[in-house]
Structure formats: C-alpha cells, structure tokens
Write the structure tokens for this entry.
Amino acid sequence: MIALKSADLSKASLYVLEEMQKEVEIYKDLANIQGKYIPKLVCYRYYEGGMSFVISLTIISTMLSDQKIMKRQRLKAIKELEAIYKRGILHNDI
C-alpha cells in the first residue's frame, strides 16, 4: 500500500511546500532505515506544471490506535525512534 501526501500550491502557503521538501530531505538522510523503521520514500515530485507537490510513501504497518500495544512492541518502537533521533532528527508527529 502507498500513502500520498499532496499540497495544492495554488492554495497552500510557501511554508507547506518548504515543510514537504524538508520531509523529503529527512527521508533521504534516513535511507538506510526506510522500510524497516520508517516508511520507504517511493517518489516525490511536482505535478500539474508545478501547481501540486506530492510525496509517495509505503505503509509499513497498521495504525497504532488500532492496536493493543504490548511491552515488546513499545520497546521496539522506542528503539526505532532512537535510530531516528541518533541522526539528529526529531519527529514531531508522534
């Protein structure tokens, strides 16, 4: 399965595009853990003559809100976040 993030640049502020481009750069920096700890970056590009920007990511698991989290899973999640944080990246969506 693939998840798409998109922004209509004719309506969104420049900040939205900058944040999406920053996310792409972070995914590039984390290439060696993509598909293992984080989704894999499939592609990113402008569409509609530059009027839209889209990021495509794989979905590697189910939503945590749909799951009963066991201690083992919680520890694994912490390990995965530490792998990201060791690279100096703070994930603000958690």
